[in-house]
Amino acid sequence: MYKRILCGAVLAVAVAAGPAHAVPPGGPDPSHNGAKVTLSKRTVKPGGSIRVSGRKFPASKSATVKLDDDRVGIIAVFAISSKGRFSGTVRIPRNVMRILGPGRHWLRFLAPASRVNGQSNTSIKKTFRLKRR
Questions:
Q1: At CA 41, angle to CA 65 and CA 111, rounded to 5?
Q2: Which of 81, 93, 94, 129 could bridge to 43 as Cys pair (CB 3.0-4.6 Å)?
Q3: Is the Cα torsion angle 42, 81, 59, 112 positive or negative in sign?
Q4: Are 80 and 86 in contact (CB under 8 A)?
């Protein structure tokens, strides 16, 4: 009996925690907790890349990058430094035009909350234009 209760409690905690990088039902939390993201350019072709940098993110976590949230999904993951910074290159998939058309799209930067300060998950949306090859 004790074993069953313990297993149930562990399962309940795991379910309650949920995946840190998923877009929640009803859309992402608009909270950015003071975090900032910079894109190197605002227009890109399929197969091209954008340099990105972030600051004031939860320290020592990971930042997940999604293209148009769940329409394309995760396209990059960056390690966040102990000072809350990351930088790198996001490559736009070459076959993205099969899923998305040209025009305005977005990158969503997600990071799990820090348990120390009680903040909510970080979610930042940055728009860019996708142009034909």
A1: 20
A2: 129
A3: positive
A4: yes
On whether the CB atoms of residues 85 and 57 are closer than 8 A, the answer is yes
Higher pLDDT, 47 or 14: 47
Q: Which of helix, strand or coil describes residue 66?
A: strand
pTM above 0.90, yes or no: no
What are the extents of the domains in the chain?
20-130
Q: Which CATH architecture has domain 20-130?
A: Sandwich (2.60)
Range in 10-24, 94-108, 112-126 with the lowest mean pLDDT: 10-24
Quickly tell me which residue has 């149930």 as its tokens. Answer: 8
- CA-CA-CA-CA dihedral for 89, 53, 99, 47, to nearest 10: -20
Is residue 127 classed exposed, middle or buried when 0-12, 13-18 and 19+ CB atoms within 10 A define those classes?
Answer: exposed
| Alpha carbons within 13 A on the beta-carbon side of 114 | 16
Half-sphere CA count of 99, side-chain side, radius 13 A: 14
Helix (H, G, I), strand (E, B) or coil at 36: strand
Distance CA 117, CA 4 (A): 33
